[in-house]
Amino acid sequence: MEMEKELVEFLAKALVDNPDQVSVAEGGDGNEVVLKLSVAESDVGKVIGKQGRIAKAIRTVLSACASKTGARATLEIMD
Amino acid sequence: MIKEFEGRTEQEAIDNAVESLHIDSAKFDVEVIEREKGGLFKKPRVKIRVHIALPDEEPEQEEPVEAPAGAMAEIEDDGYVIDPKHIDACVKFITDMVEKMGYPAEVSVTSVVGSKLQIDIESEYSSILIGRKGKNLDAIQILANVYAGNLDNHIRLVVDSENYRIRHEEAIVKMAYKVASQVKRSGKSQLLEPMNPFERRLVHTALNDITGIATKSEGEGLFRQVRVLCSYGKKDKEN
Q1: How distant is the alpha carbon of residue B145 from its chain centre?
Q2: B208 lies in which domain range?
Q3: Fewer Cβ in 10 A, N or C end of chain A?
Q4: Residue B59 neighbours by CB under 8 Å, 6+ apart
């Protein structure tokens, strides 16, 4: 679960204008990882992208990461 | 770099050169500077001079040639010069990303043509990094492009692993031809599965030259599909 959280945090920080306002809360148990990503209000668009393109890419990369341990990960973007 | 070698025959001299320089004979030019015929008590002797391209010139000269022509031919040099700092930053970003995913990999730049940067991921986990139908590779490429766009809006990245992009392009073109011949035979149009703009363009250009076949895109956004149809005779079914 640590790895997934770190990955999302790393990606979000690299994509937004205000990296210091990125935070990821984790939830779920065992094989179900739920990550809640919060970013500065003005940056929400940067992690979602047109038609959710970026959010989709982050989720894809995240699930590839989670599959290493056989876990399933969901990413929620808070606004 | 120029070096001289000797042997009884030209071939032997070249072999000597290959052995002591540890490079392939295709990578240097050979000039024969002295050729002595053997006599009764004298061994024949050939002296050659080997011209080797300087190592720092090599990658630029070699790599565009190594990559299959199909993929490279479409890349045009737009004369844009990317700041080397940005290239390093992109490589580092991708390296960090795949490492944090849990699949450490060697990330390197294959070519820089104008504003287009071709990047290769080499890893024992490359099958996972590519993903089903290149899903993961595409996601990595999207994120890398967004990151690069924040540094310099002009940069376009292509992320590849195990030559997946080229293999995939070939597969799409092959499939397009196959569908085209089916359409020609049956006269019925066929709808291909949803593809991204680049893949659709591949299909359009591949079938552009085939007489009797027309292509058009249908649908919206991420689900745009190419329809391959017969451009004469039975086409009234379509319209």
Answers
A1: 18
A2: 165-230
A3: C
A4: none
ipTM, 2 dp:
0.94
- How big is chain A by its Cα radius of gyration, in Å? 12
pLDDT in tens, A17-62: 999 999 999 987 778 899 999 999 999 999 999 889 999 999 999 9
Q: A3 and B96: CB-CB below 8 Å?
A: no
Kind plus residue range of the DSSP H or E element containing B33: strand B28-36
Identify the CATH number of the domain in which residue B90 sits. Answer: 3.30.300.20
The residues with which B159 forms a beta bridge, in sequence order, are B119
Reading the block at residue B133, the tokens are 């139908």
The two three-digit tokens of residue B186, written as one number: 């049956």
Picking from B138, B139, B147, the nearest residue to A15 by CB comes out as B147
CA–CA separation, A35 vs A24, rounded Å? 6
- The reply to whether residue B147 touches residue A14, judged by beta carbons under 8 angstroms, is yes
Regarding whether B171 and B154 lie in a shared domain, the answer is no
Mutation for A interface: B86, B92, B95, B100, most A CBs within 10 A: B100
Number of domains in chain B: 3
Residues B111 and B120: beta-carbon distance below 8 Å = no
Residue type, B40: L
Q: pLDDT digits over B37-58, tens only?
A: 777 677 778 888 887 765 544 3
Together in a domain, B170 and B121: no
